[in-house]
Amino acid sequence: GKFSINDFEIGRPLGKGKFGSVYLARTKEGQFHAAIKVLFKSQLISGGVEHQLEREIEIQSHLHHPNIIRLYTYFWDAKKIYLVLEYAPGGEMYKQLTKQKKFSEPVAGKYMYEIADALSYCHRKNVIHRDIKPENLLIGANGELKIGDFGWSVHAPSNKRQTMCGTMDYLPPEMVTRKAHCAAVDLWAIGVLCYEFLVGKPPFEHEQQADTYAAIREAKFTYPEYVKRGPRDLIGKLLQINPEQRISLKEVMNHHWILAMIETRLKAENRQAQEKSA
Ligand SMILES: COc1cccc(-c2nc(Nc3cc(C)[nH]n3)cc3ccccc23)c1
Predict the structure, then answer these.
(1) 50 burial via Cβ count (<10 Å: 0-12, 13-18, 19+)
(2) pLDDT digits (tens, 9 = 90+) for 75-88
(3) Cis ω on the peptide bond leading into residue 66 (within 30° of 0)?
């Protein structure tokens, strides 16, 4: 039957989100872990985001993919709404990125493969995420990337007003110039994400927002000299001003650099496994 808050033992708070807190939780009888996001109805209403939450629940509860955080169920009481979400023990991607400054090419390449696979699944279900950035990504038990927040996702196509509630670093030209946009916005965002994974900051970051805006519109950015040809080729094919010219998610997953990085990691993992069993 339907879960209610009484079926769970609420554990430690994991952290604060925009509209509420996230707690580690466990079902009373089993050892099943979950992450419970508690949202205050009053804050949702004053934030005018109750419809966005309804959309997030509708979308995320129907997405079943190893690189997307599952929304198992939800329930509410007089004051709060509880989302019972899959628990990713590795925590937030952006904390890892901040701690490590930047990721190695094999790590960045593997994350890019995983997010392209997850978004390819979303796009096949006509869902565009629209808010891909390290803050919305989590890390699973085996170090795999998990898309954790569908707060800004919509059913394509859309030209919904995007009230800038955070950084505009990840917005593509068609969104900053308020043109109609489609699934290709997620392609641009993973181009920005790949750059940030490898460099430690996004490509269009500037002191003044007007400079960021101009750099995005012209797709104007430079690479530090240590970024090699492979990732430059992939990033360059994603950060195309014209959405039609961006390569597809399938082409990302088959890109020679991505495949080489996955090969590299598989070999390293096999070597470790052999050393352990030797
Ligand atoms: C702002 O810091 C926040 C906020 C919300 C969650 C975390 C957090 N989350 C998760 N896992 C999650 C979260 C969800 C929805 N599923 N799995 C794990 C962590 C581990 C250490 C610290 C923090 C963690 C942080």
Answers:
(1) middle
(2) 999 999 999 999 99
(3) no
